[in-house]
Amino acid sequence: MRIAHRPRSLLPPALHFPSHSWSPNRILSFCSLPLQKPRTLALKRRRPERTIAAFAMADTEDISKAISAEEDAKFGFSRPEMYKSNLAGTVDQYDRHVFVCFRGPESWLPRVEETDLLPKLFSSVVKSRKDDIAIKTKITICEEREDTEFECGDVLIFPDMIKYKCLKDSDVDGFVDDVLVNGKQWTSAVQKLNGAYVFVCAHGSRDKRCGVCGPVLIEKLKEEIESRGLRDQVFVAACSHVGGHKYAGNLIVYSPDSEGKIMGHWYGYVTPDDVPEIFDQHIGQGIVIERIWRSAPTSNMRIIGSATMLTRVIISSLVACCTIVACSKKRIASNTCTWIVFALLSLFFLIFPRVLKLQLGLHCTFN
Fold first, then answer.
1. Which of 9, 154, 168, 263 is the most exposed place for a label (fewest CB within 10 A)?
2. Which long-range contacts (CB under 8 A, 24 or more apart) does 114-117 make?
3. Has residue 24 got a pLDDT over 70?
């Protein structure tokens, strides 16, 4: 990541685009399952002074979400486990992230990809063709909202920044075969995505912590978008389980870095107070926020990891040779010299990975 040395616009050049590109002709969604109207959550407040305020959003009716002191203490941002674990490197590696838009978190069952028709079909077909898909692919469900960037059946692919419109149940086999297996363009309407996309885990039926923290973060993100006038440049949506419930609030940001290259970064232990910094630093300048950074799971990191392993072997060999030479000059017994080499190498291999994680967190510019 590059740090700007002079005043600059909030968003990198890749995020400045003509407004007309964000008004595509809408195509009617043909999902076979009826859309459920989102329900308003009204949780009983026990201590008003501990309540997290809700945010009024444009283009939607006002949503009143409140977290009681008891819920916040057990599942929210003040729960005891917050900030207890090291976040760096807590995401499994993958090369492509596919989001399927389907209903919303209020209607998602704990295993939405195994129960509801469209997600179940998509997940099962991908699993059956796993050996044929050359690119390691992660599947996640994201919420649908009519007349937005996320409509029922839409499929968003990152870091390709491509959206396919209105996938139907009968299309799943052909879509997976054409797009994910053979790398072809599907016959359906395809749209190039621009801007920054933020996905927040709000899968409450899967884990209460995500169900409590996720909606509050989403509302704060949307409020920040409105206040900064970024409605056509930054998009936020709830998503299903992504792994690491204990790190809630969890969110994933796909956005251009300082050079305009699309990067995907995972964050954990995110609170509403972190949202302005995410806009100013990560989305605005392409700089990773190290203290809440989990990973940037791309194949390029694995390449860097291989190169790093070679570096470790070379350095460890040099350490061993230098130690042996020093021991011979000091006429130290061979057994003692062996133990010294062993201790130094053990210390090196324990410390080096931790230093590497910090470096990846501070300088995540992987091409």
1. 9
2. 116/33, 117/32, 117/33, 117/169
3. no
